């Protein structure tokens, strides 16, 4: 994935943004944060006590990621994948792609204003098509409450989509000793940290949980194949 990490560094204006833009974004984050839920709020179950509870189990876990062209970082591919975590091999049952030219630059602390609209479009497409695989939980390649103002991309997306979300970060505001290439799990929306960690463990084959890993792999491959000749 070709994007800079979200950090706790004090924001400075990008050549294409102003302090007024940043002020408006902070106000928008503060407004959305009032709707944030950081405890369990869902109807499905993580485990079953009897056979009758089979249908109530968490089954469909989505992953989203955005990859950027190395030649032109405004060209991006948003990807949504959904896995059936009750299948033996965490089968991918749905995938979709959205190739776009972004006009909002990357600014530390405001990643959601660049990426959330792309990811919301993918979720809306799926909802409009009445897909039976619409995710019950969404893993986001980005932080949740592990953010300078406690409201990262996973929170932003979760609140707007009204979905339980988990932030999967590869970078943190502070380094962690004793871990080799750790991932940083943070609450996004409508899940507790304990539940978020449990779901991540259920979906890990490698270092990165499979939903965001598959979204990353597929977005880079789709971008490589389709960005040539893309119209803006």
UniProtKB/TrEMBL annotation:
GO terms for molecular function: RNA endonuclease activity producing 5'-phosphomonoesters, hydrolytic mechanism; single-stranded RNA binding. GO terms for cellular component: cytoplasm; nucleolus. PANTHER family: ENDONUCLEASE V. Keywords: Cytoplasm, Endonuclease, Hydrolase, Nuclease. It is found in: Cytoplasm. GO terms for biological process: DNA repair. The lineage of its organism: Eukaryota, Viridiplantae, Streptophyta, Embryophyta, Tracheophyta. This is Endonuclease V. Pfam families: Endonuclease_5 (PF04493). Residues 1-24 are annotated as: Disordered. Coiled coil: none annotated.
